[in-house]
Amino acid sequence: MMLKSVNIPESIGLFILTLWITIDLWTRPLSFTDEVLPNHWNVLITLVYLVLFIVFYLVTRPIYFPPRAWTQRLVTLFLLYVTFHTIMFLFRPATASSLSLLHLFTTWLFVIIVLSLTARPFARWFQLLNLILLYQALCLAAYALLVSFGQEYVPIDNIQSLRLGPISLSQLYVGEQGGFLRSASLTNNPNAFAAWLVPGGLIAWMYVLQAIARRSLRSLVFFGLVLSLIFIGLLLSASQTGIYSFCLLALLTTLLLIPEKRLRYQVTGLYLLGAGILIGSISFNNALFAQLISLNGRSALWQAGLSASTDRLWFGHGLGSSVVGLEQQLGPSTLYTFHSTPIVYLYEFGLIGLLLYLASFLLILVRFIRDYRHDDSLSVILLLLSLWLLLLQFTESVLIRPSGFYFIWLSFLIYATRRRTTSQESTHT
User: The whole model's pTM is what?
Assistant: First the structure.
C-alpha cells in the first residue's frame, strides 16, 4: 500500500530505496562470515547498486536539493574525511581494497539519492521502511522456526536443513548437535538475525499498543501473533544483545505511547520487578552471570581493539584492516571482528574519524528527540530506530560496512540535516 501512489516516479523511487536497504541481506553468501566476503561478491554488489542508482535517476530525475541546515557542514566533513581517508589508505597491505571501493562508491550514490528527497517522499520512505522491517522480521523468524525442526546437519559448514519433499530449506546454526542450537535463519550469523528482528518486534509491539488503545480486536490478534513469532525468533537466536535491546526499547515504546502517567509508572514498575527477579536468579550461577556481564567474551575483543589502535591513534589503519589487527592481538583462530562499531572506527579511521562519527550519531538523536510527538507514530518509531542502532553499534560492527543497517543510519543522518518544510519544497512536489 505504501508504494501505491498517483506519483508513479515517486513510487518507483521508494521501491528502489527499499531494494537498496534489503539487497545486502538477501544476496549475501550463506556462510558464517560478516565482514570477510569474497572480492567477486563486492564487485557484483557494486554493479547492482550502480544499476539501482541509474534507474532511480532516470525515473525520478531529481533536479532540486532541499535546503539543508547548518549541521550539513558536519555531515559533509565526516563524509569527506571518510572519502579521502579511504583513498589514501587504499593500497596499504592491511586494507581490504575491494571492500573500501564498495563502501566509498555505495555511500556517495546513496547520499546523492537521499539528498534529493523532499519532505513528503522522506515521510513516505520512512513509513515504507517500517513495514519492510516488520514483515522482513516476520519472514526471517518464521523461516528460522520452521527449519529448526530439521534433522539434517552439515557440521563443517554449520548448516541445518529441513527437507519438505523435493525442497530443502537450510539455515546457519551455532552450537553442538544434541544441545541448544542458535539459529541464524537466512542471515550469516545469529547476532545479525536478532539485529533484524528487533526493529520488526518494536513496530509490532507499537501496533499492539495502538490496537489496545483503539480496542481493535482484529489488529490486536494479528499483531500479537506477529510479535509472538518474532520474539520466538529472538529466543532461537539466543543473542544477548538482541534480547536486551528489545526489552529495553519495548519498555521505552510503552512509555512513549501511554499518555497516563500513572499507567507509565505501573508498567515501569513491572519491568523493573521482572528485571530484578531475573538478575537475582542468574546471580546464583556465577559462571553464567560472568558470561552475561562480559557479553560472551566481547570485553576481551574490545580491549584488544583499544590496544591495537594505539600505534596509529589519530588516523587509523585503513578500512577493512580490523581483521588483521584482531589477528595480531589474539591470534588467527579468534573471531574476525572487534564486535563494536566505535572501536572499529577507532582502529580503521583513527580518533578523528571516531569523533566525527559520534558527532554525526549525536546529531541524529538530537533531531529525532526534538521532533518527537506523542500523537505522531512516525516520530516515535524514528526515535526508536535511532536508539536501536545506538544500542546495536556497541556490540556489533555493522555501521561501518555497506549493509542495510549502515544505509538506514545514513538516511537518518541526511534527514537530520534538513531544515523544516519550506514553501519551496511544496512547489517542487
Answer: 0.86
Would you say 83 and 26 are in contact if contact means Cβ atoms under 8 Å apart?
A: no
Strand 167-174 vs strand 182-183: parallel, antiparallel, or unpaired?
antiparallel
| Averaged confidence pLDDT in the chain | 79
Q: Which residue has the cell 530506530?
A: 385
- Mention every residue, 6+ apart, whose C-beta is less than 8 A from residue 109: 49, 50, 53
Residue with cell 518507483: 12
Q: For cell 574476525, name the residue.
A: 336
Residues 316-374: tens digit of each pLDDT: 888 877 877 777 777 665 556 778 888 888 888 889 989 999 998 998 999 898 888 87
The residue to which cell 589514501 is assigned: 88
